[in-house]
């Protein structure tokens, strides 16, 4: 954070601060627990841009009337291997927590099962949606489409959201392998974080007002035009996420932002799908050995590392030493608590 003044918080203090914000916004007790846990895990594991810095955005989604703080999600089993959720205009993670046990049971029964959810908001790292399934011994893939900010390769206006996807699989005797990534060159919140901290991006990640590629985060925030990673390859992944997220779940298309604009909302509202696979039902009793072999080939390969494992060092450090949070972020959060609670 450079020369910014900071304050050290334990993870328990992070959780309580998040709870204060959600309670001040009138969020139900059940959803408070889920959302505060997501914020805490973001500070613990990264991306920290999705942790405490996101609390004012969560609050704005509720106080603007865009998201429902008292949402009562409904989960319906539509087929032997399919669950559909309606989050009642609340947050996806609340609905997913209600579907969690049934999804695991269905995956173990059928070998594969999926949970799709519509009418939902999402602000966290997607990895936290799939990691609990890997901890239960399942392989999981998750996607969610978002606000139209990504310009397709060769295009001039945004069509897709940053449209992230995530993957998780169990690893014998160790924490699961978990990664997530946006379809854009850089995640939106990392661009906002760079702008807030006053430094450029490491490489061009969006378009400036004149249509040129730029590393200036403020210019990209002005145009809201991000570039896909890998040019046409990232655009293809964004299309996949749009289909599995919005189209399959019945969520809001990335280009359909009129309701969001009317509320001045800053958060994501799309459709989400997570697919859970039980490796024990796919006929390879050596699954764990395969994972161990793949992992060994990576770790014994120069400076290569297993995707997503960087978070484990952050986790250990945060659990031992807490996290340093910029005082201006904390001041903003405390103002949110006062304003929302008044």
Automatic annotation (TrEMBL):
Extract one GO molecular function annotation from the record.
oxidoreductase activity
Q: Which InterPro entries match?
A: Mal/L-sulf/L-lact_DH-like_ah (IPR043144), Mal/L-sulf/L-lact_DH-like_NADP (IPR043143), Mal/L-sulfo/L-lacto_DH-like_sf (IPR036111), Malate/L-lactate_DH-like (IPR003767)
Query: What's the domain of life for this entry?
Result: Bacteria
In the UniProt record, does the keyword Nucleus occur? no
Alphabetized, the UniProt keywords read: Oxidoreductase
Q: Family per UniProt?
A: Belongs to the LDH2/MDH2 oxidoreductase family.
UniProt-recorded name of the protein: Ldh family oxidoreductase
Q: What species does this protein belong to?
A: Halocynthiibacter styelae
